[in-house]
Amino acid sequence: MQLERYGEFPKQLPIIIEEDMFLYPFMIVPLFIGDEESIKAIDVAIEGGDKLIFITASKNRDNDEEESFYDVGVIGTIMRRVVLPEGRVKILFQGLSRGSILGIVSKSPLVGEIAPILSSSYDASRVEAILSVLKEKLRTLYSVSQMFPQDLLRSINETMDPNRAADLIASAARLKKEQAYKVFKENDPEERLVTLIDIIMEEIKAQQIQKEIKNKVNSQMEKINKEYFLKEQLKQIQKELGVDNSKDVEIEEYRKKLEGFKDVMSKDAYKEITKQINKLSRMHPDSADANLLQNYIELVLEIPFGSYSTKTLKIAEVENQLNKDHYALQKPKERIVEYFAVRELLALRGQKKNDSKGTILCFYGPPGVGKTSLANSIAIALKRKLIRIALGGLEDVNELRGHRRTYIGAMPGRIVQGLIDAKEMNPVVVLDEIDKIHYSFRGDPSSVLLEILDPEQNKEFRDYYTNFSLDLSQVVFIATANDITQIPAPLRDRMEFININSYTPSQKEQIAKKYLIPQELKKHGLKNFEISFTLPAIKVLIEKYTREAGVRNLRRKIAQILRKVAKEILRGNQEKITITPKNIGNYLDKIVFEFENADKKSEVGLVNGLAWTSVGGDVLKIEALKIKGKGSLNLTGNLGDVMKESAKIAYSYVKSLIDSGELKVDKTLIAIVQKNKKPEIETSIYNCFDIHLHVPEGATPKDGPSAGIAIGSALASIFTNHPAKSTLAMTGELTLRGKVLPIGGLQEKLIAAYKSGMKEVLIPKKNFERDIDEIPQEVKEGLQIYPVEHFKEVLKYVLR
To answer: Cα dist. 339→313, 320, 500, 692, 710 in Å?
Structure first.
């Protein structure tokens, strides 16, 4: 647009400042003006005949220059003016030429000395080449962003005026103000075009990056949308087919539950369960593997990760609970309190329990003496759940370690199942009858028990079913056994044994009065005023109707009595029933168990031996009989190999005593031999008789070396024809030199002697020195206990 018809320039023109952008010469645009100074400038332009006005752009706010607007802009004319409500004005502006401000004439309204920006001379061919490059870049930009309208791009391609092309491109490219100002003020067309080429190339690069990002985002969005669409389709299809579509909801619940355990479970556990959940999400819900996998996930998520009983350990509470639940058993209770005293002290001093390589307690003794109930009392005192794992007859290691999931019907081991049942990771676990595990082709369960019980290994116990490690170091393990010799040696090495001995009759009386009868009354719905037991009746019940080391059968007999009493009360026969020795037979069967009481009359060849059994001690009547013969020894009574050897040793030693003259043979025997004209009577009398040795109750297996001195005493009684004392019992192993060696199970044997009415007992001297303090005071007061070190001492007591 030419400015010749508007007269000579520079001219004083009113100035309007546009906030957002530069306007260009070719533009015809509507402008809305609300600023008072700008409205005054419009009025000044209207008053002038040519209606010329200068419009420039405001600078950025962070610019510290005095003027707040650029010194270049566009010179144009006001084609139309419309007054709007609220004092605003709308004008239709037509740009004519670029211009620059030479100076400010007035500030209210803003008027300046304005001159047009004239293009400098240029090389047409060079500019044409640059312009063609710019147009090519524009086409490239259009292909990646399409930011130019098609008609504008066509106009740019058709124009050959470099300034016109530069203005069109600058207006459409949405340049920053500083970029636009640089292009706007430049009067060299070549420089303007080169600057635009640089700007367009940067824009191309930016648009390409944006397009790449958008493609990636769109691709991900399409994938998500596709998955969502397909899942919705699958749900509808499953709904039409009648298939349960709650699988996704269940899997999401599994994930939420797993995330709740993440901070309290091991990394390998979290990794394994996550892997199986992901695997399940990809499976068809009707497949067999999906059901097995879902069972696995549901089960392992029931393991109480991070859940521990927080009860503070107090040994006073443990001691009180043990005394409340159990009568006597002072030594075992004292040892249990010591065990937990160490754990409490460690907790008070801030040390980890694992720092003390804790031992595993093992209660051993006859059945019914309270081994499992002691563990139950411990659990109550600690406020922990009690888990009982019966090991009797166990021969499959998978029962403890779990089955691998490759097998049909696979299940976790008893340890993991116990943790799930307890709902805490530190319960009290009782390994019952640990001496009765078996070995077979299915493996050795003791090897698994080693890992479970060893404090060095159980921090990372791995169950085959779960396939990840569990920390068992906080579990309180307590084992029980009847015979510790049957426990494998490696297991014995990791346990500390506490012997639970047999109860004496008086202890059983107190247990029956304080514990068994009240408990059974409650179980049978009876009241104290409806039935009572006299003390003599309880004694008869213990002595005549039960034969055991513990009180299990005693409880059964009391329950048997109470059942009959309940029936009588319901029939209205009696209001109050008292059990006495006279009527106790009406409520119980005939007497079936009796101790072999001491005989009133002493007999030749009959000696009382003492034996230990799995159900307590017992008195063995050892019988010897001489028959004319050639000196053979016959043994009967279902004797074991060790006991047979003891008999042979005793026979050989008694022969040596006869040969040396230390054992005087009965004169009657000498006369019999002389009548048969046998020479060397004193040294060969035993060759004239066969000896038959028998231990009654032949159906009962018997074994062990502790009957050695009893067998020797029976043989000595036969050859001397001197009766052995009927109120004397004995136990001890005999050697070929006549020494008496110590034995085991002394307390059970002495209690058996006491129950059977013996008055005197012979025991090895070493047992007397080390074990006599553990014998109940009642037994020590009821028996005369003599320590013996040699068989010659035994003969002094037996044959006196």
So the answer is: 12, 15, 16, 52, 40
- 95 in a known ligand binding site: no
Handedness of CA 280, 285, 288, 294 (dihedral sign): positive
Element (H, E) at 212: helix 189-241
Which residue's structure tokens are 């031999």?
673
Whether 622 and 606 have beta carbons less than 8 Å apart is answered as yes
Q: Beginning with the edge strand found earlier in the chain, give each strand of the sheet holding 728-730 in spatial order.
A: 633-636, 689-694, 616-628, 606-613, 728-730, 760-764, 784-788
Alpha carbon distance 107, 110 (integer Å): 4
Name the β-bridge partners of 719.
Answer: none
The one-letter amino acid at 420: I
- Which residue numbers are catalytic? 706, 749
Full DSSP string of 271-291: HHHHHHHHHHHTS-TTSHHHH
162 is in an annotated binding site: no
Per DSSP, what are the bridge partners of residue 562? none
Token pair for 20: 């957002």
Helices (H), 524-629: 535-544, 552-571
Which pLDDT value is given to residue 672? 63
Structure tokens, 561? 């009595």
Q: Tell me the pLDDT tens digit for each residue of 342-370.
A: 888 887 877 654 444 456 889 988 888 88
For residue 624, what are the β-bridge partners? 693
Of 363, 428, 430, 417, which is closest to residue 391 (Cα–Cα)? 430
The Cα 428–Cα 536 span in angstroms is 40
C-alpha 362/C-alpha 371 separation (Å) is 9
Supply the angle between the helices 162-172 and 150-158 in degrees, to the nearest 10: 160
Q: Rounded CA gap, 538 and 510, in Å? A: 10
Residue holding tokens 């002394």?
746
631 annotated to bind ligand? no
CA distance 94 to 53: 10
Q: Which two tokens stand for residue 560?
A: 């048997």
Helix (H) or strand (E) run with residue 786 in it: strand 784-788
Known binder of ligand: residue 668?
no
The per-residue pLDDT for range 467-492, each reduced to its tens digit, is 998 988 888 899 999 888 888 888 88
Tokens 């010799």 found at: 485
Residue 212's CB: how many other CB atoms inside 10 A? 11
366 is in an annotated binding site: yes
Token couple for 338:
């010591």
CB-CB neighbours of 428 under 10 Å? 23
Number of helical H runs and strand E runs in the chain: 28, 24
Does the annotation flag 306 for ligand binding?
no
**pLDDT (0 to 100) of residue 622:** 92
φ/ψ of residue 790, rounded to 5: -140, 155
Domains and CATH numbers, the chain: 4-116 (2.30.130.40), 121-245 (1.20.58.1480), 247-300 (no CATH), 315-499 (3.40.50.300), 505-586 (1.10.8.60), 606-798 (3.30.230.10)
- Which range has the top average pLDDT, 63-72, 128-137, 274-283? 274-283
Say if residue 794 carries a ligand binding annotation. Answer: no
The reply to whether 755 sits in an annotated binding site is no
Three-state DSSP state, 79: strand
Closest C-alpha among 629, 631, 648 to residue 639: 648
From its phi and psi, is residue 761 left (phi > 0), alpha (psi between -120 and 50) or beta? beta
Place of tokens 């950025």: 60
